[in-house]
Write a structure and sequence with these properties.
Length: 323
Amino acid sequence: MPAINSRGYFAEPWDTIKLHAEIFKHVHGRTFGRISKFVATIAIVGAGIYIVRKIRAEKRRKNRQQQSRAKKDVVILHQFPRGLYAPSISPFPLKLETYLRMANLKYENDFTDFIGPKGKSPFITFNGEDIADSQLIIEFLNSKLSIDLNAKLSDVDKSIAHAFRIMIENYTYWGAALHRWVFDKNQTIMKISRWPFPWNFMAYHVVKEHMRKNSWYHGIGRHSEEEIMKMLKQDLQAISVFLGKKAFFMGDEPCEVDCAVFGLLGQLVWNFPGSVLEDFVNGEFSNLKDYCFRMKERYWDDWDSCLDPPRPRALLHGAQYNL
């Protein structure tokens, strides 16, 4: 028996700690045992699911690469399923598919395996090789197939186009994405998607938290809604002023940057029904809407057949496209 002092406490503090530990173990031991088993079970199940998903992902990768090798020089474009009002509800698949049409490349769409090796969409498989990120894909195909959609631009114009693309894809995009997924409280996405309940509700909240977290790390998500919307409007004003009365972004003929500009602005025109962003392109920045319709007319005469559901008055864009 440990020594007890005159005040009724153990003389050694360590003895007090050991006594409390024994009491705690006796009272709560069984509960902690059950909790430990539950946690271990969850960990094992989670690890099993992760391994199965990895095995399936690897199997899909090998299958698509094998199929791609059998179709030499045909781009397999992996992207989200079609939208209700535009071919994609994301700017980057719309950008990339517009590029493939502008460059007159043979391609096929895959709407089932749409998340790529970097966890992003779209991505492509080309001659058995997976390439992710829309801009890296464009640069890869430019190099591989000797494509130059900017051949008529001066070095100064190329620099301007590059700067606008960076602004649109790394700043303007985040303002629009936060409006859709965070500020709009599920109103926009419910109007442009065909996800059945409860999948639409669940998907919205998963993506919402993903966007909130990533925008915080980006930096723009640390601002208030009012501040972000002000920045977004300033971006649209800059794009509108630079476009002016030109037919396309850099002049009378489209070039590579038009794919990115159209990818983003097309979302505002067709995929933000009833929102303030739609009001911007219908009112103060209406030349952006006119520009989108010119791009649509030039490269998407089968636009209606590329919606879900397809519109019956669609025209086919060409035999080289497997849509």
